[in-house]
Amino acid sequence: MVIDVVLPQLGESVAEGTISKWLVREGDAVQKDQALASIATDKADSELPSPVGGRVAKLLAAEGAVVAVKTVIAQIDEGAAGTTTNMSLSAAPGAPVSLPPVLPPPPKVPEVVMPAARAPMATPTVRRAALENDVDLEHVQGTGERGRVTRDDVMRAAGAPAAAGGKERPSTPPPAIEPPQTRATPQTQQIAQLINGGGGFVPPIPGVGFGAFKVPAYRAADGDKVVPFTRRRRITADHMTYSKFASPHVVTVAEIDVHKASKLREAHKERYKAEGMSLTMLAFAVVAAARAIRENPQVNTRVLEDSYVVLQDINIGVAVDSPDGLVVPVIRRADELGLRGIVRAVDDVARRARAGKITIDDLSGASFSVSNPGIKGNLFGGAIINQPNTGILRMGEIQKRVVVVEADGEDVLAIHPVMYMALSYDHRVVDGVAANAFLWRVTEILEKAEFEV
Predict the structure, then answer these.
(1) Could you confirm whether 431 is annotated as catalytic?
(2) According to the model, what pLDDT value does residue 83 have?
(3) How far is CA 35 from CA 51, 55, 406, in A?
């Protein structure tokens, strides 16, 4: 029986994936759950397991192909033996043994089956470049492998200089990019639709300009180093640009005396270390945020087209570094974990992020985010909201400062560790009263430091 292998839904908001590499060939024997291919998405890379054991009958998508979720990309002949299966040899006593025939090399992987509209083959990055430059991919001749449209093809079609990437630099300076027209072209209408539901706003095009303003063309100078965007950097750039367009950001800041929390941490950090965990101020901040969200749910929301959702589960994304750049793995139902559970969860996702073992599920489903720039985080900063969240809390650097405290009924000066925390919130659905109430409660929880350690 032939079983279809489809590209599954690889996380929230993921609509397509790229076949980075096939790990099997046609005719190979595979076991159930054996990795068939490496799949790259806008969130992370993962391996696609085989749904059944059997023989690979067909590979329907080429390496590098971008396919939509739920698309059939391979077929498995369930229960059939493949070329890598140990075949049993049986013969009558004294009869010659017939060896299995040598199979010819597997056929070249066919192109991905495209829909009837014959949409051009292009990666999400190339499609975004086409939108930004008002280029219709249907009319672009692809020069990439198997006719794939590259970014250089798009830029040539737009009349712009080709992207730098180790190619010979032209002898004449590149021409300045023409300013975009203010008319609502189909491409700019599509961007506007993403941003505000098609309300008539024509947004500026990154790297090009807006209206009468145009971005000056880059002129190469000795010593300049052109660094092409990595896939992760391009995804981050697109996300941040969209977030700033879509969400009217407001930032509010609190000064927090973390004297009691710091003493609590110092008293117990060695015990946690002996258990293989790091008791950090980030863990205290995540616990405080989760408690404050439960009491102020307006910051735990998501905006829809003409409404918004107050989310029940408190899933906090924690920004951590990885070999491919910053990622935001999610601690689910953080308000139910307590300090020890948060410490264990933060340690786990940070360790796997540094090892490059983060999965798409780890990065999906955040309802609020906490960012910790580390010991060199400076005073404070307004972070960009992690879409589709409506709030993000950024920790600042902890510094010793002179504060006023009460002792024996008198106000006295003391030197305490102090941290600024900045809340960025989406003013479409989060009002100042709700945002300030949330941040005030975070401050109170951290300053009282009533945590079970």
Answers:
(1) yes
(2) 60
(3) 10, 13, 63
The strand pair at 54-59 and 35-40 is best described as unpaired
The share of the chain scoring above pLDDT 70, in percent, equals 77
Spatial separation of the C-alpha atoms in residues 89 and 102, rounded to whole Å? 15
Instruction: Please report, as a single letter, which amino acid is at residue 114.
Output: M
Closest by CA to 6, choosing from 30, 54, 39, is: 39
Strand-strand pairing, 29-30 and 54-59: antiparallel
Average pLDDT of span 229-257: 88
Residue linked to tokens 């205290």? 284
Compute the distance between CA of residue 427 and CA of residue 414 in angstroms, rounded to an integer.
37
The beta strands (E) that lie in 289-409 are given as: 301-303, 308-310, 316-318, 320-322, 325-327, 330-331, 368-371, 391-395, 399-407
For 332-362, write each residue's pLDDT tens digit: 999 999 999 999 999 998 888 888 788 878 8
Active-site entry in 136, 313, 321, 427: 427
Q: Is 416 a catalytic residue?
A: no
CB 244 within 8 Å of CB 392:
no
Asked if residues 137 and 149 have their Cβ atoms less than 8 Å apart, the reply is: yes
| Candidates 4, 33, 136, 431; catalytic one | 431
Q: Judge whether 76 and 5 are in contact, CB under 8 Å.
A: yes
Could you tell me whether strands 301-303 and 249-257 are parallel, antiparallel, or unpaired per DSSP bridges? unpaired
Contact 87, 81 (CB under 8 A): yes
Mean pLDDT score of the chain: 80
> What CA–CA distance (Å, rounded) separates 235 from 252?
27
CB-based contacts of 88, cutoff 8 Å, min separation 6: none
Alpha helices in 7-162 (DSSP H): 124-132, 151-157
Does residue 91 surpass a pLDDT of 60? Answer: no
CB 403 within 8 A of CB 447: no
Find the angle CA(270)-CA(273)-CA(279) to the nearest 5 degrees: 85
Can you tell me the distance from the alpha carbon of 158 to that of 133, in angstroms, rounded to the nearest whole number? 6
**Stated pTM of the model:** 0.63
C-alpha 356: how far from its chain's center?
13
Q: Is 183 helix (H, G, I), strand (E, B) or coil?
A: coil
